[in-house]
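Hey, quick one: can you model this chain's 3D structure?
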Amino acid sequence: MKAENSMTSPQETPAEPVETGSRSTGAGRLIVAVYGVFAISATARASYQIATKFTEAPVAYLLSAFAALVYILATVALAKKGMRWYWISVAAISVELLGVVAVGLLSLLDPALLPEDTVWSGFGQGYGYIPLVLPLLGLWWLWRHRPRPERMR
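Sure thing. Here's the predicted structure for all 153 residues.
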């Protein structure tokens, strides 16, 4: 009986996107860590605000809670491997960028709507504008480490 060696006869498969490297190593690890810090701090802030003074500024505190959920999802998605997690991280970080810009504009144009600051108020002014810069860095990093179709052999 002749043993078949799959190493000597590669099988042809259609080109599928494959990840070219881990997004959670090198600079990617730093981005994941910063997202993790923001996930924890936004969650703590929103939890405290909602538990102790929700009636003072419910919209602002709910926006802080939403930001926390976005940061949690982005952190997990960036740390995970696979196409699905890649696209979840793109979506989460895109929502974050949209949120920072929208809440930043609202906080400038209608300060009465947000009487208390959120993580994203003033484009993240209270956090050194990191909430504005972080999604830009995150999307850039994802673009640089996007899955690419493997070439046919």
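One thing worth noting: Residues 27-145 form one domain.
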